[in-house]
Each structure stands twice: as structure tokens, then as C-alpha cells.
Design brief:
By secondary structure, the protein is of the alpha/beta class. It has three domains: 5-280, Alpha-Beta Barrel (TIM Barrel), CATH 3.20.20.70; 297-369, no CATH class; 398-454, Alpha-isopropylmalate synthase LeuA, regulatory domain (Double Stranded RNA Binding Domain, 2-Layer Sandwich). The protein has helices at 24-37, 51-63, 88-95, 109-114, 120-136, 148-154, 156-169, 185-198, 214-224, 245-255, 263-266, 269-280, 301-309, 336-345, 354-369, 378-389, 439-451, 503-521; strands at residues 5-8, 41-45, 70-76, 100-106, 140-146, 173-178, 203-207, 228-231, 297-298, 327-328, 398-408, 416-425, 428-436, 462-471, 480-488, 493-500. It binds zinc ion (ZN).
């Protein structure tokens, strides 16, 4: 392992993302995942300033069993004209129990004078006083130099003074922050190199993605000599987000050969990225580098035939290093080669079976013409292929006799839906009802209710995303509705598709595929 710090700020800076709200329990669960990933430091929040964060640190002491990571409490330098020892917010940092305190401080002369409204000298004194007080309390101190790059451009000498003040008072790391996210890699590299020359600081880097360069800027800083890198999982953060720590770590480890986290832990990156998405309730970004569902997905038929010969020709690294896998997208651009590869992915050797490959391809093309899409609905395609290869019976977990759903609203109350589903499963005819805030939700509840006596395994499945698209009238038919549903079992998720003239019918098809695939995936036998 190198001594480069991997410092995660998902729980503090990442949580600033619009629409992202984390409870204390959510934060504890995310911290456990981050620890599993092998990050060195987890910034838990701002105790004292935010009651939820105070509670997080209190509960973390009893509820988190960290194997790798050290918790860091985030806070600011003491108040203008005060005394660190008497400042309640500084005191709260000590009381949090965290052994590392990350202090945010101003290093931009303009911010000191106009935002903080104090003198340049007092700001330096606030840094010295707060860092030395915390050192005296036995804490390790990291300093986040806010707006550092912009401040350096305005007044280099003062920005350097702030760094020196922190180091002289005992700060272990000074993280240079591109708070506004406007830097480009060459600027970051030049500034980091200059600050290293001009001070004795150990430097860190904290980047925002406003120029789309957060990862590149972090890499440039490390190349220039920074040995502490901050970021958030999945690039969460306000505006355009922070540097995606998963990409930064994968780049440094896989491309640069630095050992930041133990190799088996990096192989959990894809699973952990998705598990954290479940907690934040922010849908995973399929095009996310390394860990996105599309990161190693290939579509074109031409590529597919070459990939069959040698996958390395068409991918930049081995997807299994980050726990992802190569995925063939099945689309009308694809040929028999991609179906064969997809089959291989699923454990079927279809190499010599031209007749079967042609049959599947014809079916896929026909369905795509009718509005289905299998690019996004891997699970529906897998079921289609399995039915062709293994035969229908292997996946007939249940037979649907009928379903119906009604929605009603009374007075000014919200509309509610109620569904009734009749199925035969495990040799029994079951009639079940379900309620929901919408018809699809109600049907989902009723279907799983009906199936749960025969298949209790379905209890842990959850419908997590539902997308509808009206497809234009084409090929001489009426407009149709395509529904994509994402179902999760808590650790992974899969997409299924339904197409029909009626939106509820399309949803029903996707729901049925979703639960069927859940059973196939869990290896449940037909009962
Ligand atoms: Zn930030």
C-alpha cells in the first residue's frame, strides 16, 4: 500500500447534492460500504453545526466497526475575534470523538475580506489558533483550503501564507480545494507543484466537476505531488458534483499501479457503487466510468464478432478488476455473434448452433420492430434466450389467469389504486389483492402477494425504477407504450421491458419478467 490518502467526503460534501437526503442510519450504512471498499478516511459530517451529524458521530462510536477507515469530523476555524478553546463549534469537533478533524479555512484574500469580513492577519491567526488547539487535544488535523486555486490566482503570497500557517501549527495535510470547480488540469498541476516548492506542506486535492475535469484535475494534482485525494462515491455533490472517488482510485490503481486499496476490495467497487445508489435513492448512472452498467457494454455487430476473438481488443481494462463485466447489448445492430457472446455470458455454448442463433436473432429483430428494446432490458433478453435454449417449462414459475386494477379518488384525497391478480403457482390457485399509490405499484404488490406462498424468495425484491416512453406510430401501427422496470434484490438490480398499446398492460409484462428473472437469478426451482 502506498501512503497516499484516499479521503471520502460522500457523507458531507456529497450529501450537498440536490435531492439527496440522508438519514443518520443511511449515513452509517454508507460508511460501512466505504470501509468495505477500503478508503482510508471517511468524512462523516459537521458535528455541532448539524444535529444529524452530531448524532452520526455519537452512533458511529457504537454502531460502526471500521476495519480500514478512520472517521474524520469536518468543521470550520474558530470565530473571528474569539478563542478556539472557547468556541462551541470547535469544541463540538473534539466532542465528536473523531481522531481526525478536517478544518475548512479561507485562503483567498478576497473571501477573507468580503465574505468573512475580517483582516488577512486575523484569518491566519484563526487558522493557527484552531489547528494548535485541536493538536493540543490530541487530534490529527487536516486543513481544507477553501477556494485555494482562485485565491492563488488573486494573491499567491497570501494563499501560501495560509498553507504555511496551517503547517506550522501542526496540520498534517493541507488539501487545496477547487471549490468553484473551474480549474483545468494544467492549472492544477502548476499550482500544486509551486505550493510544494514554496512550503513544506503535505498536499491534498479536493475537486468539483464544473469543468467536467474533477477526475482529471485530481489525477493532475497527484502527478504533481499531492498525496491525499478527496472525492465522493458516484461523484455526488452539489452542482455538477465532486470528483468521483471510484474513478480516481481505479485510475490510480489500475492505470498507475499505485496500491491504494487491497485488490480484492476494488473488485467490490461496482457492487458497492450500486448499493450506495440504493441508499441515496439516486439512480445509478449507467455511463459512469468503470462501474456503470454500460461501462463495458458493446453494441455494434461488427465489434461483437471481433470481441468473440479477443475481448482485450475492445476494452481498456479488465472489467472484473472493478467487479464489473463485459456485457453484450442486444439490438438490431447486432448480429449472430453478439447473441452467441451473450449466450456465453449466461453459460450457454451456442457456437455451432446456427439454426438457434438465427431463430433468436429473428425474434429479437421482430420484437425490436414492435418497440421492445433489449439494450436497456438485459433481464428480459436473458429470459427470452433461456426460453429458446432451455425451453419454456424451466421458467414457468406461475401461470397468470387474470389481473385487473382500479383507481379511484374521493373528494380531495389522493387517488389510490387497488389490483386483483389471479395466478396458479406451486399447484395452487391464488387470488390476491394489493394497494398502491398508482396502478403499477398496486399490481406489483398484488402479484408478489399472490406468489409469496409458493415463492417466499420474492419478498426481498423491490421495484426501484419505472420509466415510460410513448413510441411514435410507425410501421403502419398505432402508437405504443414501452415500459422499463428496474427491480432490485438489495444487492443488484435488473431491467425488464414491456410493450403494449395500453400502459398498464406494458407495465404488467415488465413486472412479470421482473419477478420471473428474480427467481431465475436466485436459482429457485419451479414449484
Ligand atoms: Zn467541496
Amino acid at each position: 500500500m502506498t501512503d497516499l490518502h484516499v479521503y471520502d467526503t460522500t457523507l458531507r460534501d456529497g450529501a450537498q447534492q440536490e435531492g439527496l437526503n440522508l438519514s443518520v442510519s443511511d449515513k452509517l450504512a454508507i460508511a460501512a460500504h466505504l470501509d468495505e471498499l477500503g478508503v482510508g478516511y471517511i468524512e462523516g459530517g459537521w458535528p455541532g453545526a448539524n444535529p444529524k451529524d452530531t448524532e452520526f458521530f455519537a452512533r458511529a462510536q457504537h454502531e460502526l466497526r471500521l476495519q480500514n477507515a478512520t472517521l474524520a469530523a469536518f468543521g470550520a476555524t474558530r470565530r473571528v475575534g474569539g478563542n478556539a478553546a472557547d468556541d462551541p463549534l470547535v469544541r463540538a469537533l473534539v466532542d465528536s470523538g473523531a481522531s481526525v478533524v478536517t478544518l475548512v479555512a479561507k485562503s483567498h484574500a478576497g473571501h477573507v475580506e468580503r465574505a468573512l469580513r475580517t483582516t488577512l492577519a486575523e484569518n491566519l491567526e484563526m487558522i493557527r489558533d484552531t489547528v494548535s488547539f485541536l493538536r493540543g487535544e490530541g487530534r490529527r488535523v487536516f486543513l481544507d483550503a477553501e477556494h485555494f486555486f482562485d485565491g492563488y490566482a488573486v494573491d499567491r503570497a497570501y494563499a501560501l501564507e495560509a498553507v504555511r500557517a496551517a503547517v506550522e501549527a501542526g496540520a498534517e495535510v493541507v488539501a487545496l480545494c477547487d471549490t468553484n470547480g473551474g480549474m483545468l488540469p494544467n492549472q492544477v498541476a502548476d499550482v500544486v507543484a509551486d505550493v510544494l516548492d514554496a512550503t513544506s506542506a503535505r498536499l491534498g486535492i479536493h475537486c468539483h466537476n464544473d469543468t467536467g475535469c474533477a477526475v482529471a484535475n485530481s489525477m493532475a494534482a497527484v502527478d504533481a505531488g499531492a498525496t491525499h485525494v478527496q472525492g465522493t462515491v458516484n461523484g455526488y455533490g452539489e452542482r455538477t458534483g465532486n470528483a468521483d472517488l471510484l474513478t480516481v482510485v481505479s485510475n490510480l490503481q489500475i492505470k498507475r499501479g499505485l496500491a491504494l486499496v487491497e485488490e480484492p476490495r476494488l473488485r467490490e467497487a461496482t457492487r458497492i457503487a450500486h448499493s450506495i445508489s440504493e441508499i441515496t435513492n439516486v439512480p445509478p448512472y449507467s455511463r459512469q466510468p468503470y462501474v456503470g452498467a454500460s461501462a463495458f457494454a458493446h453494441k455494434a455487430g461488427l465489434h461483437a464478432s471481433a470481441i468473440k476473438v479477443d475481448p482485450d481488443l475492445y476494452q481498456h481494462t479488465d472489467p472484473t478488476l472493478v467487479g464489473n463485466d463485459m456485457r453484450m447489448l442486444v439490438s438490431d445492430m447486432a448480429g449472430r455473434a453478439s447473441i452467441e457472446l451473450k449466450g456465453r455470458e449466461l453459460g450457454f455454448d451456442l457456437a455451432g448452433d446456427t439454426e438457434l442463433l438465427t431463430r433468436v436473432l429473428t425474434k429479437v429483430k421482430d420484437l425490436e420492430l414492435r418497440g421492445y428494446t433489449f439494450d436497456a432490458a438485459d433481464a428480459s433478453f436473458e429470459l427470452l434466450l433461456r426460453r429458446e435454449v432451455v425451453g419454456e417449462a424451466a421458467h414457468e414459475y406461475f401461470e397468470v389467469e387474470s389481473w385487473r386494477v382500479i383507481t379511484d379518488a374521493r373528494g380531495d384525497e389522493n387517488a389510490l389504486s387497488e389490483a386483483t391478480v389471479k395466478v396458479v403457482a406451486g399447484g395452487e390457485r391464488v387470488v390476491a389483492t394489493g394497494e398502491g399509490n398508482g396502478p403499477v405499484n398496486a399490481l406489483d404488490h398484488a402479484l408478489r402477494q399472490a406468489l409469496s406462498p409458493a415463492y417466499p424468495e420474492l419478498d426481498k425484491l423491490e421495484l426501484i425504477d419505472f420509466r415510460v416512453r410513448i413510441l411514435d406510430a410507425a410501421h403502419g401501427t398505432d402508437a405504443v407504450t414501452r415500459v422499463l422496470i428496474e427491480t432490485s434484490d438489495g444487492s443488484t438490480s435488473w431491467e425488464t421491458v414491456g410493450v403494449a398499446g395500453n400502459i398498464i398492460e406494458a407495465s404488467w409484462q415488465a413486472l412479470v419478467d421482473g419477478v420471473t428473472y428474480g427467481l431465475v437469478r436466485a436459482g429457485v426451482p419451479v414449484r
